[in-house]
TrEMBL record:
Residues 167-236 form the DUF2249 domain. It holds the Pfam family DUF2249. This is DUF2249 domain-containing protein. It comes from Kribbella soli. InterPro entries: DUF2249.
Length: 241
């Protein structure tokens, strides 16, 4: 088999490649939708239907993506020292985009065209940072499962409900996939939320990983301590703000 074919087969199942593909797919859909709505129609007195479509796309598609990206891409990187500032910058960019979306929703047809182009440019810059900087950083963070986060991203964008189990019984998960599954679930927690981990032994190694990665940001409460089962409530600490 040619080396090129072997390489293609290997990358098709690589979690980082899967994650990048999902994010690129979402990015392309957003940018192509905005490009069609901002460049295909002239601004005339009869432009109200077109401008309404652009506003609707920004209010629903763009805004839903910003919410989804924050929960599934930004949150997992928000507590790591190497990526915290990057996430803060991305969240500032997202806040600015949301402000522009509020502005376009209240604008007339001529201003909608102008604001639509501004949103397109700002979103393009935001997505390029996600793709070229955030995704490689996520791939290098311990406890982050890129393919799981990508699957959640696709589900959210498709309007599907992502499973958010309140109990994770790791005894039913193959070794090697247990800790990534737990960390992926933790990444989707909002401040103050929690889930219960069930294991056949005291998950001390997992707790040490949490302390190394999410020090001060998680809670760990034993609900049952052996002898055959351990139940631990793992939560994301609520913000003081």
């Amino acid at each position: 088999m040619p080396a090129a074919e072997i390489f293609i087969q290997a990358t098709e199942t690589d979690p980082d490649v899967i994650a990048r593909g999902a994010v690129q797919e979402a990015h392309e859909r957003l940018m192509s939708g905005l490009a069609e709505l901002t460049t295909a129609q002239p601004v005339t007195q009869g432009a109200e239907p077109w401008s309404a479509e652009l506003v609707d796309f920004c209010l629903h598609e763009v805004r839903r993506y910003l919410v989804t990206a924050d929960r599934n891409l930004y949150a997992p990187a928000s507590e790591d020292d190497e990526t915290r500032l990057l996430v803060e910058a991305l969240r500032v960019g997202a806040a600015a985009l949301n402000a522009q979306i509020d502005e376009i929703a209240a604008a007339g047809p001529v201003d909608v065209a102008r604001l639509g182009m501004m949103i397109t440019a700002a979103l393009d810059a935001q997505l390029q940072i996600e793709e070229s900087v955030l995704l490689p950083a996520l791939a290098g963070l311990p406890g982050v499962d890129p393919s799981s986060l990508a699957a959640d991203l696709r589900a959210y964008l498709a309007g599907e409900q992502v499973e958010q189990p309140t109990v994770i019984d790791v005894r039913r998960i193959a070794r090697g996939g247990r800790h990534p599954r737990v960390f992926a679930r933790y990444a989707r927690l909002a401040p103050g939320e929690a889930f219960i981990l069930v294991n056949s032994h005291d998950p001390k190694p997992l707790r040490r990983e949490f302390e190394a990665i999410h020090a001060g940001a998680f809670s760990w409460d034993y609900l049952r301590a052996g002898p055959d089962e351990w139940h631990v409530r793992i939560g994301r600490v609520a913000s003081d703000a």
